[in-house]
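Retry 2 of 3 after timeout on previous attempt. Resubmitting structure tokens to design endpoint.
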């Protein structure tokens, strides 16, 4: 680890810690992800894997995880990444997200003056997947599924959320606002975290650095299937959103329907 840090100090390049959240029997996908990282030819980086990985790769550390303690405990895994990351820029990604060629060059152009950063996420069918997402700003005429903002709308952080499948953040941000470990997969841990941090930081989009989803080999939605959840916001609604101004903090980001689906989030309404 010290060699990684000293190497970074000799360069003006941006260093990244890549934290991969995984379970068992995902070595093939993880190797593809690490291959995509190595193709960037970054002078300084590390890969942290929380879960099972049996292949030896350079600059890679595996943190084994007891999957019996709590089912799909991804919040704990993400906090382990934060705890062990060497570099200030941490990329959090699940084991089905890989970098596209030019990802690192895109960040060199964009710079590292951000706190929380999103990149375009490309689904296996070539469409956008839950990247720059409006969450809880109701606009007349907008359907419930219209969530994907145009990338040039950058003033709406207070009404957005960051998808837990992939994001980039400064280590200091994640240390101050760790993922709530009471919540597991499918329990809205990314929504709760977004709600907490968006009072303090603006979300940033670097559209020059893209990532893409890996297929799920016929076992799920990542097989050229259109995302059933979110669609892009239409032009009429976009015009309305460009004029939006509002308070820094919202009182409630959870609709009654969402609380019905995720009752464990009730406690956050009491804070």
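Retry 2 succeeded. Sequence:
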């Amino acid at each position: 680890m010290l060699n990684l840090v000293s190497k970074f100090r000799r360069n003006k390049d941006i260093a990244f810690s890549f934290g991969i959240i995984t379970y068992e029997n995902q070595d093939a996908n993880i190797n593809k992800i690490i291959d995509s990282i190595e193709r960037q030819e970054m002078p300084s980086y590390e890969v942290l894997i929380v879960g099972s990985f049996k292949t030896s790769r350079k600059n890679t550390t595996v943190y084994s995880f007891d999957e019996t303690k709590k089912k799909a405990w991804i919040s704990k895994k993400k906090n382990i990444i934060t705890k062990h990351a060497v570099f200030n820029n941490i990329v959090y990604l699940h084991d089905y997200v890989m970098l596209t060629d030019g990802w690192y060059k895109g960040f060199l152009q964009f710079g590292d003056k951000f706190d929380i950063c999103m990149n375009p996420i490309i689904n296996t069918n070539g469409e956008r997947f839950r990247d720059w997402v409006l969450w809880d700003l109701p606009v007349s005429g907008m359907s419930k599924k219209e969530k994907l903002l145009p990338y040039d709308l950058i003033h709406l952080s207070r009404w957005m959320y960051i998808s837990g499948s992939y994001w980039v953040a400064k280590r200091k941000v994640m240390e101050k606002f760790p993922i709530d470990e009471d919540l597991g997969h499918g329990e809205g841990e990314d929504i709760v975290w977004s709600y907490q941090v968006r009072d303090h930081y603006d979300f940033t989009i670097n559209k020059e650095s893209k990532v893409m989803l890996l297929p799920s080999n016929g076992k799920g939605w990542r097989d050229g299937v259109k995302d059933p959840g979110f669609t892009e916001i239409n032009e009429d609604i976009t015009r309305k959103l460009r004029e939006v101004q509002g308070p820094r903090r919202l009182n409630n980001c959870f609709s009654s329907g969402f609380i019905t689906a995720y009752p464990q989030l009730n406690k956050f309404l009491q804070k």
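Attempt log closed. DSSP finds nine helices and 14 strands in the chain.
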